[in-house]
Specification:
Oligomer: single chain
Structural class: mainly alpha
Order of helices and strands: HHEHHHHEEHHHEEHHHHEHH
Number of domains: 1
Strand order of the largest sheet: 1-6
Radius of gyration: 21 Å
Number of helices: 15
CATH architecture: Alpha/alpha barrel
Helix content: 40-55%
Number of strands: 6
Distance between the termini: 6 Å
Shape: globular
Strand content: under 5%
Length: about 425
């Protein structure tokens, strides 16, 4: 789900907020008419070309967890995007035309499957989506963003999440003798890496085969390594901190699974604990959030990676190690969500609050109200959600109001840089 396009957008937003970014040249900005308008039923008002299915799926999953019954138009928009072969593209402008199989998107398919499972009542579409994922698994067990390309950790992790949601054992989903867990292990740094990098995930191997830790790949893959899906509902708790990867050099304590030689892939039995230990150390070193580093730009907080890291730790039974990141997201997430106007970010933040068993009505604002406001009016909102919103402390409600005024100022700044952000998003070789 990530790469330079989203990273570039995040870096630009941070620069605008600090006043360090110049307005882009008009020649670099696409005409506003070039971007398709957000269709009826879709959450969020921005150009859906690269993330329509992604943000809709996250929004519907998060609202299902909040016991909100979405409008029929919101659900039918998502089901209407599905292709005849079962996959989903990032966005399908003309649903009457046949899909181009090369543009179908494993990330969109994986989150759409999870959203429809969370909503219930869409088994045929779910079954077709799962079959598409199985059909488009690579021979090494991994998944690529688009079929026919080399696999990556983010796409593989999301596919594994969807398999867990559909109750399809990833160990039994295989190509050429390599199952989904084998595919995920291709990207995890093992005992050959420096001790402080072990357990992390690379996005893809370098040309020479070396693995380099990638922040978002690690955060997203951690949920799959821990056996999780969206939404995260795990309530198991392990009092001990995650165990570092056991290696034959004696750099970590050896659990029951034994120790691994330097060149061996990380065993699935050790994968979740290893990435959990890595993330715990990174969060502690970074002030309870992960950092985004892009060439030529100053490091900035990586909200998306931090959110997925929290979800992975909670799924792995380590909510206490996730608590600092959850607190940081509650305090700082309004920047990420643009005051509750970014549908994907708001939905992800809502799922973090739900997984951490925090009140979403006072998690840097009323997340359920913010998210529902970005789409068609829901059919029903549970009494529990309404009560939670009305019972938020007065000071927290006041903060939510401040966030709306903050949004107006940010909106002006984002407008200045919007053309450059859209230009970055149109680098189709990267994920939105």
């Amino acid at each position: 789900m990530l790469t330079a396009a989203r990273l570039g957008a995040a870096a630009l937003t941070a620069a605008l907020l600090t006043g360090t970014a110049a307005a882009p040249a008009l020649a670099d900005s696409p005409s506003p008419s070039a971007a398709p308008a957000a269709p009826e039923g879709l959450y969020g008002k921005g150009d859906p070309t690269y993330d329509g299915v992604w943000r809709q799926s996250l929004a519907l999953t998060a609202l299902a967890g909040a016991k909100v019954t979405p409008a029929d138009s919101a659900v039918s928009w998502l089901t209407g995007q599905q292709c005849a072969d079962g996959g989903w593209p990032s966005f399908r402008a003309d649903t009457t035309a046949a899909c181009d199989a090369k543009t179908e998107d494993s990330n969109a398919t994986a989150v759409a499957v999870q959203a429809l499972i969370a909503l219930g009542g869409h088994q045929d579409a779910v079954d077709k989506g799962v079959q598409w994922l199985k059909a488009n698994q690579n021979a090494d067990g991994s998944w690529a963003y688009n079929p026919g390309s080399p696999g990556d950790a983010d796409s593989t992790g999301l596919a594994v999440n969807a398999l867990f949601a559909a109750k399809a054992d990833p160990a039994g989903v295989a190509k050429a003798g390599k199952n989904a867990f084998d595919g995920l292990a291709l990207f995890q740094l093992g005992c050959a890496a420096p001790a402080d990098q072990r357990g992390a995930f690379a996005y893809q191997p370098k040309p020479d085969g070396a693995l380099e830790a990638n922040t978002l790949a690690t955060g997203q893959a951690s949920l799959a390594a821990a056996g999780g899906k969206l939404p995260v509902t795990n309530t198991n708790r392990t009092d001990a901190a995650p165990k570092a990867l056991p290696c034959a050099d004696g750099s970590a304590a050896t659990p029951a699974s034994g120790s691994a030689p330097a060149g061996a892939p990380v065993a699935h039995a050790d994968s979740a604990e290893a990435v959990g230990a890595y993330l715990t150390a990174q969060l502690a070193a970074g002030g309870q959030h992960l950092m985004l580093t892009t060439p030529g730009a100053a490091p900035t907080p990586d909200y998306t990676a931090t959110a997925w890291a929290a979800l992975g730790l909670i799924q792995g039974g380590h909510p206490q190690q996730a608590a600092g990141a959850v607190d940081w997201l509650a305090q700082e997430g309004v920047t990420w969500t643009k005051g509750g106007t970014d549908a994907a970010a708001t939905a992800t933040l809502l799922m973090v609050a739900q997984a951490a068993q925090r009140d979403p009505a006072s998690f840097g604002g009323d997340l359920v109200a913010q998210l529902t406001a970005l789409g068609p009016a829901p059919k029903a909102v549970s009494a529990a959600s309404t009560a939670a919103a009305s019972s938020a402390p007065a000071e927290e409600k006041k903060d939510g109001g401040i966030g709306q005024w903050w949004l107006i100022g940010v909106g002006l700044l984002i407008g200045i840089g919007g053309g450059l952000v859209l230009s970055l998003q149109r680098k189709r070789g990267q994920k939105p």
